């Protein structure tokens, strides 16, 4: 495609906010808009979103980003070639195909109401918690879509009736958005992509299709499930009634997979995204690597219907940036998330404080839904700066736990190192603007952390997938990483090995204190 003004749009639908970003052919942002939406907490451990509010947030972001880019002199109307979409994964909803209305709020990925469903399955199935792991790469956990779907089927009468009358459509957020964007009741396309499907517990990792034996075991009707497509292909055009119409949606990835593509992670390279949670993925190439150390096997990306599939090992951390929001919204220690760096910098250490944000249990590599948050080591010397620093350290220790498991699973041959023999961790997401956090991460790991100039790599990855499908970019251009390295910031460890070892031992002691606390009396 020639160098005339060419643009690709990207819908980035996250856990707490939605954004729409318009990129030019040089991957530069020419217009963007972001809006937050409501988090619904009906009970302790329950988290929901209003699907209609999410739709409206996409509509607003599209219109505002378009206005901003146009006001700056960009002719988006004639130059926009494709739209990519990336989304919070696992969040589950069911809607009526005849009315288009949701039959219940979307149950969010971090929601823990399904712990009873999980325990029941673990007891009934011969393989226990790992019964489906060999097929789908995932343990039975409250995290994944299948158990959320089972809860809806068991507890919501409207869902039961709709499935019985063949009026129900199931989807993760990508499916809901694409169905509505491509027409909804008037011919909306009911699809998901391989990366989002790989997080449901229902897709066979090898065939990239819904696994019939799993569906039969769980009693899930295949008719409600969307068609699975690759991450980079034309899915359908945006219908009338949206701020942008007639443009193809040609890229779709779950947020963490999009970030891998945005970071141009090849085989043996890893990235960590710091958002509401933190998510560390290592590209394992065309081979599925089954974890023996508490990680998930998942799809990295499949860049076209005929393209080879790249797989990944993933460690998911439920609470990262969400702990900073908790300090702001629930404790009032800070007034804005950006204040935490200044506050935590007032002290040189945590003063022996260790904070483990197991608010709804612990994900990788522990997988303990009976864990609850703890803050240990407090004395009269402790102040709010120590607590703030401990919150930042908690993110970094959790990432280190996951990386240690990755090193064990992948082995020396499964990781790429630089000319100095160092393993580089690529980082992205909103929290990475915090320089103190990035320095602590390098200190805890004992190896370098690389932050790109544009830390919003999730939206960029979705744009890349969409642009690739329509010829805006080639795969070679997307993975040409030398230019990106020139503008990246590298954080190198500054503490010694002995102190690092002592801090990690103290962290592990703190983690052990979180177990078996779910039934504490109110």
Describe the structure in your own words.
It is globular, with a radius of gyration of 22 Å. 35% of the residues lie in helices and 22% in strands. It is built from 18 helices and 23 strands. It has 522 residues and is α+β, with helices and mostly antiparallel strands. A hairpin with a 3-residue loop joins β15 (270-274) and β16.
Layout of SSEs?
Layout: E1 7-13, E2 17-24, E3 29-36, E4 48-49, H1 51-71, H2 76-79, E5 80-87, E6 92-96, E7 106-107, H3 115-124, H4 133-136, H5 145-155, H6 157-164, E8 168-172, H7 173-181, E9 191-193, H8 194-197, E10 203-204, E11 209-210, H9 212-218, E12 227-229, E13 232-237, E14 248-254, H10 255-262, E15 270-274, E16 278-285, E17 296-302, E18 309-317, H11 321-331, H12 339-344, E19 354-356, E20 374-376, H13 384-410, E21 425-428, H14 435-445, E22 449-451, H15 457-470, H16 475-478, H17 482-487, E23 489-491, H18 497-512
Helix pairs in contact: 5-6, 10-15, 11-13, 13-14
SS strand fraction: 15-25%
Shape: globular
* Main β-sheet description: 7 strands, mixed
Radius of gyration: 22 Å
Number of strand elements: 23
